[in-house]
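Task: sequence design from structure.
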């Protein structure tokens, strides 16, 4: 049975969805697989979290055959890597056990880096002279990180202290390729705000960077960890992460969100969304597999500033017509517009913030000393002996 994730359902609905008896439902609850609470509107009646039941149904549908499990792990499926860096529990993001949303109310990206890297010192992200004569900003970024990949060397065995220092330099190098970063000792968000001449919005940039720092095993993080597992330098790992981040289904979703917003402004909200869907395109920036109740990072950012009327109208229409909530991508586009940031700023913030997480995962992977090398489930022509 496929269920429309809303929030909480009754015992009868839960048993019907799972196709189990009450005793089995109680067993799921006792093992912590389904959250339960008292119904505030009915005495002596309990409600069961629908997203937990949906997750159980999804696991069941995957089957337990080895090839089914292997295939499912690559698409929002079973966990495949052990990490102590970050996790998502009941629609909430945690950095080493600390609530990322709560951290975003006060922490700097330097403080989050120290936490995620399990470092003893607060890192400083130095400014670098940007490359000149290399073309557009995105080209400059890739050229810069390509040079970092070639110049870097991976220590064997890994030296954690050296990796902390190199990670800090790489983030400074990456940020400097996006903006003309001042060479001061101020926190990174203040220097970026200075470069973009939006000092009055520096705290919004700080919050965005913290919320973007990590999110479990995203595609770009996985790419970076694979590079780290082969013994690549941290610069090469950052380049691998950046390459994956550039895809329209990941960090470049902000570009797609901006295109959707432009279309709704040209055609009107309803006609713009319908025209987008009529082309068979996925609605960018709305809905997230790991946040069935809505992306808490987007909620936190939207609580910190007032998005434009056009963006509010887009969010409201999509919610009414599809039930999908905005993701961090929509919030970043709205923030860039609110702060009057330059074109491409949303992607810049995403890359710089997420690089902190890439470095954490690459350090963890390097220390483990293991090679990530999945096997393929072959479905091609029959192999004849």
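Answer:
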């Amino acid at each position: 049975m496929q269920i429309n994730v809303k929030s909480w359902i009754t015992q009868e609905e839960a048993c019907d969805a799972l196709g189990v008896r009450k005793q089995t439902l109680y067993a799921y609850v006792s093992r912590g697989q389904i959250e339960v609470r008292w119904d505030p509107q009915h005495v002596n009646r309990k409600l069961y979290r629908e997203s937990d039941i949906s997750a159980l149904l999804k696991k069941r549908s995957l089957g337990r055959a080895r090839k089914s499990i292997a295939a499912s792990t690559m698409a929002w499926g079973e966990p495949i890597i052990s990490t102590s860096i970050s996790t998502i529990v009941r629609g909430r993001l945690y950095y080493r056990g600390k609530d990322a949303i709560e951290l975003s109310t006060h922490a700097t990206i330097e403080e989050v880096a120290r936490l995620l890297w399990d470092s003893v010192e607060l890192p400083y992200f130095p400014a670098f002279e940007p490359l000149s004569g290399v073309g557009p900003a995105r080209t400059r970024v890739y050229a810069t990180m390509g040079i970092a990949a070639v110049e870097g060397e991976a220590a064997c065995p890994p030296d954690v202290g050296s990796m902390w220092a190199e990670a800090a330099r790489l983030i400074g190098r990456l940020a400097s390729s996006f903006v003309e970063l001042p060479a001061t000792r101020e926190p990174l968000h203040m220097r970026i705000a200075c470069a973009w001449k939006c000092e009055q919005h520096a705290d919004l940039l700080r919050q965005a960077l913290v919320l973007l720092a990590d999110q479990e095993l995203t595609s770009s993080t996985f790419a970076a960890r694979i590079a780290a597992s082969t013994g690549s330098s941290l610069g090469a790992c950052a380049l691998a992460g950046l390459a994956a981040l550039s895809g329209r289904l990941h960090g470049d979703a902000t570009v797609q969100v901006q295109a959707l917003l432009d279309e709704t402004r040209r055609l009107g909200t309803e006609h713009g969304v319908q025209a987008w869907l009529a082309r068979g395109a996925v609605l960018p920036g709305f809905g997230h597999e790991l946040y069935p109740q809505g992306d808490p990072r987007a909620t936190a950012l939207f609580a910190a500033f007032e998005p434009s009327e056009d963006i509010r109208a887009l969010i409201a229409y999509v919610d009414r017509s599809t039930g999908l909530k905005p993701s961090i991508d929509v919030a970043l586009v709205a923030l860039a517009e609110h702060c009057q940031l330059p074109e491409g700023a949303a992607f810049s913030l995403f890359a710089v913030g997420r690089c902190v997480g890439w470095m954490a995962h690459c350090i963890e992977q390097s220390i483990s000393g293991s090679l990530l090398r999945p096997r393929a489930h072959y479905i091609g022509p029959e192999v004849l002996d």
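Residues 31 and 183 are 52 Å apart (CA to CA).
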